[in-house]
Structure formats: structure tokens, C-alpha cells
Design goal:
Blueprint: H1 2-11, E1 14-17, H2 27-45, H3 49-63, H4 67-70, H5 72-79, H6 83-89, H7 100-108, E2 113-118, H8 122-131, E3 140-143, H9 144-147, H10 154-164, E4 171-175, H11 178-187, E5 191-195, E6 213-214
Parallel strand pairs: 1-2, 1-4, 2-3, 4-5, 5-6
The structure holds magnesium ion.
Magnesium ion binds next to loops.
Length: 224
Amino acid sequence: MSNFHKSILAESTCILLDIDGVILDQNFDNLFWGEWLPAAVASKKDISLETAKEDIYKTSKQLYGTLPWYELKFWEDKYDVDLISLAEQNKSYVKFIEGAEAALKFMSSLNKKIFFLTNCDSRLLKVKSSQVSLLNYADDWISSVDLGVIKEDQKFWTIAFNQLNVLASESIFFDDNISIVNSAIDYGIKYSVHITEPTNNDSVIYESKSEYQIRKLVDLIRAD
Ligand SMILES: [Mg+2]
């Protein structure tokens, strides 16, 4: 399987990568939204942790896959918490996914353009990249929150490809979110690869029906 993906990689002139769940351990975000934010809200509003979790979960469910869900500002305004300081306090949890840095080094050796395309708010990405040096592996990166249009939306791809000056038909793309993988395929990135294991602790493992899928980026450099 991985030889197949390696040959696709060799054919492509441009490598596009999501960040969270592909390069960085998704567990940071899972804890950030699922544990640390509820704890901060519970303390701020003097409510129980369980009540805070329920409220956040309800809001999150309503907004999942939309722009506000990804925007720090939305959550800061709604709950009156400082999310950057929350991220700073917990930044030791920001980690490469096992083998991701080696895979990025391999990709860098191929002499292709490398871009990171993320729905992570650039303010949060700044904290993450101060903890783990990942942006040096990319020629450039785009936060969809800065553009005001997320990767689930076809307009994102039009703007991104114009900005990056590369072709969808010559690109390979990696993302752990199947809705986004499908959005990329709809736009014309045929080689859109679903990453099925976005955490280091295996707390999330996706069943995938994608034509192109690997467990983790490191599969690309494993001998088989
Ligand atoms: Mg992701």
C-alpha cells in the first residue's frame, strides 16, 4: 500500500498537508476543547465541570464543521475565557505525531512545493508552532480562519490555489477529516489521502472507505 502512495507522491509537483491530526497529535485539540475549555468555563462561571461540558458539547454539536466552530473569537466571546493563555499553559501537549517529522524531512528531500492548509485559527497555530517547529517544513501555510472560509467549503480551494499558484490536478493532499478529504476531491484534488490515525495514543481511529488512505504520514517512509 505505501509503495502505491509513494508513487503518487513522486508524480505530484505539490504536497498539501493538514496540520492537526496529520502532523501534530490531535490529542492536544481533543483535550483543549473537551477538558481544558470546560474546566476554564466551570471555574469562570462557577458551575460544575459536567454542566460546562454539556453546554460546550451542545454548542459544538450545533456548529461542527462551520467557520465559528474553528474560530477562537467565537468561543472567547461566548464563554469569556482567554483561549491563548489556556493554550500557552498546556503547550507541552503539542507534539508531532509519531514519525511525522521524519515524513516531512523525506517530503522536503523530494524538491516539491509543500504547503500546510489548516482550519486551525492562526492565533492558536502560533502557540503550537512556538512549541513544535513545523512551519519550517512548508513553503507557505494558510489558515482558513484568516480567509473566513473553511476547507469544507469549495470557495476555500479556489482562494487557496490562486494564492499558492499551484494546480489541484498536480497536487497530493493529506487530511484526517473525511468531510475535508471529500471536499478536496470534489474540487479536483484526485489524490486526497485520508489519514486514519490522528493521535499518538490511538484514542481516535477512523474506519475509512477512502480510495486513498494511510494510518499516519510515517507509513509513506516505512519499508514494505
Ligand atoms: Mg485535522
